Amino acid sequence: MVNWGSPESVGQQNDYRMARRTMLGGLVVVGGLALTGMLSGCATMGLPGSSPADAEPVRRLMRYSSERAFTWLVQPDGFWTSPVARIPLPVLFTRTGSTKSAVLKSPKFREQLQHQLNTIASQSAGAAASVVSQTAKDMAIPNAAGVLRGGRTEATTLLRKAVGPGVVNAMMPGIERAMQQTTDPTLGQAIAALKGVTITDAAHALAIEADNSIWYEIGSAEAAIRQDPAQTNDAVLIGALKGG
Q1: How far apart are CA 52 and CA 182, in angstroms?
Q2: Does 191 have pLDDT greater than 50?
Q3: Domain count, the chain
Q4: How confident is the model over 192-244, as pLDDT tens digits?
Q5: What are 116-135's pLDDT values in tens digits?
Q6: b/e string for 165-186 if b means 16 or more Cβ within 10 A?
Q7: C-alpha gyration radius of the chain
Q8: Which of 69, 181, 205, 214 could be cross-linked to 90 through a Cys-Cys bond (beta carbons 3.0 to 4.6 Å apart)?
Q9: Cα dist from 172 to 99, 164, 166, 179, whole Å
Q10: Is residue 221 in a domain?
Q11: What count of other Cβ atoms lies within 10 Å of the Cβ of residue 206?
């Protein structure tokens, strides 16, 4: 089975995104770290951790944050209208020097392509929601108190490490299928303009960018909940965050 989220395949896509995401503070945003994070998350499974009662507020924080994020992102223009999760054009489509076609150099065309890719990501994001949700339920939380006292995206960072490449792997089939079935000619024109690029290549590039954006949205939701935990109406989480 292909691991679409492996560092070998994602590293080159993730070296230039940090500046416009500074509001998410400590959130780990480099997709190339996903597999390393997954391994470290697995390693903690054998370590003494917090009791189930101690870990429960963290799991609730993860759940509320991810549910809020996915509720927004799966809307038809969810990624496109998000202040933090709009997906930029993947590097694959920005290397205009690799094509003699003028189409990818047109600002109007590039915006149309970017919007189409964001729409496809919204159509496919639901597949990642169950992966994130199940991981939040099952993962080890070795220092729950530290997570609650940590930075505004501390729980999201921990959850992303545990999920590893799971989001990319979950979204790939849906993205590729949506690209094959789209009636909008924009994507086809873009791929045709790039020598040797396939729909699978384009789907992989988009899945990597969508993975980053999903975690930005979850991190943003966590930060908002930490700032005002009362909005959850969850006495357990409110008490834990107020006490932390």
Answers
A1: 46
A2: yes
A3: 1
A4: 999 889 999 999 999 999 999 999 999 999 999 999 999 999 999 999 999 85
A5: 999 999 999 999 999 999 99
A6: bbbbbbbbebbbebbeeeeeeb
A7: 19
A8: 205
A9: 26, 15, 10, 11
A10: yes
A11: 30
